[in-house]
């Protein structure tokens, strides 16, 4: 199952790198927008969790994020 996310304040995006999907936050972290995979009209995201690439539904991500 999914790990709970660390409780950190929301990242403030200060710049986006031109011609890429990457953004830089105020604390120096680099982010990339995840694009969903749509299967039978349901949205899934491919995420590496515990060193394994997993397909996680949008519903599961929202549930985990609301528990943080």
Concise structural overview:
The chain has 68 residues and is mainly beta. It has one helix at 58-66, and strands at residues 13-16, 22-25, 30-32, 37-39, 42-49, 52-57.
Helix vs. strand class: mainly beta
Apparent shape: globular
* C-alpha Rg (nearest Å): 14 Å
Number of DSSP strand runs: 6
Low-confidence stretches: none
> What's the helix-strand series?
EEEEEEH
How far do the termini sit from each other? Answer: 15 Å
Helix content: 10-25%
Largest sheet: 3 strands, antiparallel
Summary tags:
68 residues; mainly beta; three-stranded antiparallel sheet; 1 helix; 41% strand
What does this structure look like?
By secondary structure, the protein is mainly β. The chain has a domain of 34 residues. Helices cover 13% and strands 41% of the residues. It is built from one helix and six strands; from the N terminus they run E-E-E-E-E-E-H. The protein has a three-stranded antiparallel sheet with strand order 1-2-3, with no helix packed on it. A hairpin with a 5-residue loop joins strand 1 and strand 2. The longest helix is centred in the last third of the chain and has 9 residues. It is globular. The two termini are 15 Å apart.
